[in-house]
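Journal club prep — side note

Before the paper discussion, L.F. wants everyone to see what a predicted structure for a comparable chain looks like in token form. Sequence:
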Amino acid sequence: MHDTALVIFSAIACVLILLPLPIHLRARNYAILFNIIWLFLMNFNTFINSVHFWDKSSNDIPVFCDICEYISRELTDDKPSRYLKL
């Protein structure tokens, strides 16, 4: 999978999403803090997977795939909206 744009933009998104973190920590804005953490984990998971599977699609580290699948499954169900109380 040679998708250079996915690698670059997910890395940039990981950095940019952490910029407003100190402001919201001081303001104790917990809904925004959870949203920042949620977006960072999703972008970081995409970045790590796209770098790991750059030239190959074989499962070299089965535990790594299990952890990434667990993170992706837990972050994409209804838990984010429950924590934000939407």
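L.F.'s comment for the group: Residues 4-83 form one domain. Keep this in mind when we get to the figures.
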